[in-house]
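Reminder to self: keep the SMILES exactly as supplied, no canonicalising. Ligand is magnesium ion.
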Amino acid sequence: MNPAYAITTEKLKSIRHVVLDLDGTVYSGSKLFSTTIPFLRQLAAADIGYTFLTNNSSVSTADYIAKLHKMGIDITEEQIRTSTHSVISYLGTQHPGIRKIFVFGTDSFRNELENAGFVITFGEPDAVIAGFNTELEYRQLCKAAYWIRRGKPWFTSHPDLECPTDAPVVLVDCGAVTECLRTVTGRRPDKVLGKPSREMLEPIIERHGLRRDEILMVGDRLNTDMQLARNAGTAAVMIAAAPEDIAGDDTIICAVRDLGELGKLFRPRNQGNYGFTEYSSENTPGQKTAEPDGSPAGCEM
Ligand SMILES: [Mg+2]
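Structure tokens returned for the bound complex:
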């Protein structure tokens, strides 16, 4: 066995919960990757939990559940965490005095904040909250800038400058509009939630009572997904078109082309216990030998 490959599988043995980025990891836009469902089945068979994570605050939790259901993936509300959830939990724990908010975002974003108990106002707020606003309205942008300039605390749902798309447009995301507001007001947000802020992972760790070495972050971006794992002190696997170009370190234990390659590092343990362990072609029928020559590229190599 390739020694680096053995180190990778050894590090995956303790994993009890996998956190998966959505776009670029589970699917691309509206197209589900063929490796996703088999990988999720592997996790379920091994009694390893999973949660999906996204920075997109323009659509609601229900929209995501419906989208995944349409793709053949049924999840509970607890199995998806968006940057909107992160805004809600962060304000609830760190700024419980903030109740009345001016929201720069979509109707879905506004509704989720309202359902969480915040009072939405166009008048004087306790704070300004900005999300990925695909329904951007100039009057709303100007009013957000006004309250920020007046010194109201302000928070944004995530730092992404653009949202990935195959369409012939650039989807201007929350981070880019944050820059616009920062430039015109001279004030940075008091806090940027979403990936890579550790607030995205902490509630998952707490809810499932996990140790740091029992949670694995899987995603396709260095500056959000991998950095989140680094900030939260968990391990990560990177999905990359050229995994051999990704250098492994204490956080990124492995880079693979897709979830199918990650699945090859994983099989049920013997004696009734299940989990990540060394892959063996002998007792995993139907799967291709992955090592030594076919080891998922980039795995500590
Ligand atoms: Mg992604």
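Points to follow up:
The pocket of magnesium ion is lined by residues 21, 23-25, 219-221 (CB under 6 Å).
Residues 278-301 have pLDDT under 50 and may be disordered.
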